[in-house]
Design the sequence.
């Protein structure tokens, strides 16, 4: 079970480079793809799900090129796109029956798989309920269930936790953990915490370029020792926010508690307490740096 | 409380349990490929025929029949024109509803993974509405054939 993404690139007809020289080696486990809107995440996922042809590079699954054997790859791929829906008047099992038959499952095997995936997703008791009565989280679980019907070896999920409440997000992460033990799960998301809590490796895209690939703990190192919390008077906050990279702010009467990343090279801020960094801090710092780089590039131009 | 915009599908007008019994019976006796086709046809029929659409189709047939009687059509060419007009109206109604349901359902993204190629996907969807178009017009076409045999 090995997915190898080699020097993958995509240039659209209008000349826009959506993806440039992307490399990644994936094996069993959960992998997170992070990046802002327009970074190239969806382009990468669309190439992996055979919806787009790359302009350079290739994707190999256990050594064979997926573009050369698309139908064989489709049989082992489970894909959950960002924008999907279900017919609201159909029952959960009917949707799975419909999708399963299109996947080439029939008879007893189909029935067994429908029962299994509904149980895995915690929808065993809701099989006979119409989809229109489902909550956002239940729909999301049903969507995952349909992508698991044919027992895929690789699961590609685009923005799965958007719109879920905190409880549903935690449940979703736990479910991902279970899936990651049996297949390659590639998760694209905006929600940094999902990557921090569930992925054992992450890749960061910005402007179509792969900026980081490695473990989330490794990514956090970029801000280690630079994340602080301090109390400052409310009226000083505008000046403070211009000098430091503020991550979070909480008003407490006339003062505010500020969590911030100290600028590079500054390791001691009077009155500030160092706190444990997380992936979100590193991500914000990274984005700030990208923004500064862009500004410098514009100035040079 | 039920929202007024919600569609009520055909399942609600079919006796509970009957569909299940027929499904089991067919599954026992038919080959898997045929069963797949029937199952997909059934699901898509349910998606296509909301109660509103059934009423619209009935109303359309009623209007055309009434218009035929009122106009006192006795010429073959006029009857044929009416039949063609009715076929077109029905085709537009069914296909508009088909794509509207698909737009609301937003299932294309999930289906394209299973039916690669947009043309194949469109055909997969359209063949059901085309078949229903044919089935619904069959009595009228037979009526027209009978009409041709009447000596005027």
Sequence:
């Amino acid at each position: 079970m090995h997915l190898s993404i080699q020097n993958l690139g995509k240039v659209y007809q209008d000349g826009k480079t959506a993806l440039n020289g992307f490399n990644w080696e994936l094996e069993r486990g959960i992998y997170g793809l992070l990046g802002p809107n327009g970074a190239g995440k969806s382009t990468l996922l669309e190439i992996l799900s055979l919806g787009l042809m790359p302009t350079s590079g290739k994707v190999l699954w256990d050594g064979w090129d997926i573009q050369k054997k698309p139908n064989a790859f489709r049989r082992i791929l489970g894909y959950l796109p960002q924008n999907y829906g279900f017919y609201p008047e159909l029952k959960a099992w009917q949707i799975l029956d419909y999708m399963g038959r299109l996947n080439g499952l029939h008879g007893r095997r189909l029935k067994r798989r429908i029962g299994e995936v509904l149980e895995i997703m915690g929808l065993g008791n809701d099989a006979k309920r119409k989809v229109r009565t489902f909550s956002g989280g239940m729909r999301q679980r049903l969507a995952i269930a349909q992508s698991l019907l044919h027992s895929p070896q690789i699961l590609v999920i685009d923005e799965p936790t958007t719109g879920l409440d905190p409880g549903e997000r935690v449940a979703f992460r736990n479910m991902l953990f279970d899936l990651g033990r049996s297949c390659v799960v590639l998760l694209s998301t905006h929600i940094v915490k999902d990557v921090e809590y569930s992925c054992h490796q992450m890749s960061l895209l910005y402007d179509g370029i792969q900026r980081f690939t490695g473990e989330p703990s490794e990514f956090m190192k970029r801000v280690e020792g630079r994340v602080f919390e301090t109390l400052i008077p409310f009226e000083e906050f505008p000046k403070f926010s211009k000098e430091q990279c503020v991550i979070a702010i909480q008003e407490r009467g006339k003062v505010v508690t500020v969590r911030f990343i100290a600028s590079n090279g500054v390791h001691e801020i009077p009155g500030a307490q160092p706190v444990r960094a997380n992936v979100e801090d590193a991500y914000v710092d990274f984005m700030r740096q990208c923004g500064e780089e862009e500004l410098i590039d514009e100035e040079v131009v | 409380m039920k929202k007024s915009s919600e569609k009520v599908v055909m399942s609600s007008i079919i006796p509970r349990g009957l569909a299940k019994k027929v499904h089991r019976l067919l599954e026992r006796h038919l080959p898997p490929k045929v069963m797949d086709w029937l199952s997909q046809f059934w699901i898509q029929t349910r998606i296509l025929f909301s109660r509103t659409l059934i009423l619209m189709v009935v109303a359309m047939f009623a209007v055309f029949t009434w218009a035929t009687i009122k106009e006192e059509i006795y010429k073959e060419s006029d009857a044929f024109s009416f039949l063609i007009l009715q076929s077109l109206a029905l085709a537009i109604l069914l296909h508009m509803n088909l794509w509207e349901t698909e737009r609301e359902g937003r299932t294309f993204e999930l289906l394209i993974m299973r039916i690669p190629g947009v043309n194949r996907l469109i055909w997969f969807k359209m063949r059901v509405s085309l078949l229903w178009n044919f089935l619904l017009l069959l009595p009228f076409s037979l009526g027209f054939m009978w009409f041709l045999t009447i000596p005027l």
